[in-house]
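FW: tagging you since you asked about this chain on Friday. Here's the raw sequence from the shared folder, copied in full. Didn't touch anything.
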Amino acid sequence: MRKILLLAVLIVSTVAVSFAQTKKSTGEGTFSIGIDPGIPVGNSSNFSSFAFGGDLKYSLPVATNFDISLSAGYDVFIGKSVTIGGASGNYPDVKGFPVKLAGRYNFNGATGFFGEFGFGAAFIQDGGGTAFLYAPGVGYAFNGGLEAGVRYEGWSKNGTISQIGLRLAYSFR
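HL: got it, structure written out here
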């Protein structure tokens, strides 16, 4: 899994450096770092009651009010405690490295409301394999680089691991 994380960081860094070499007329790209708490939904709520993670994201304006971004992170769906027939135990945590490519429309420019749709892959640890990831969401970008957003995120592979997630981030402008 360290190799996957290293690969994700390498991809984000390479894209960021290559985009940094060419200045776009629509503006310069930005990095952001975020924390991602979430509530598991659907079948995921059977084995987990809370998800938590973090991510690094590089966003590049490509048209007026429209950005593309690449992000890589780490998420953990924390396993629930259960009691069956007097015996208690915990479901195992589900851990993964989500890597997403996203498009984002900013309704009012750099600050204000936005809508975003991301897709990519979630590399699930402990033999879970690779799942298709999709994540539509909305949010608000504040002056000064702070950002808050909410999204539905699903990891689809022989079923879906999903959450309603919150992203609280700081963008380095």
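FW: The domain at 2-172 is CATH 2.40.160.20 (Porin).
HL: agreed, and Residues 15-25 have pLDDT under 50 and may be disordered.
FW: great, closing this out.
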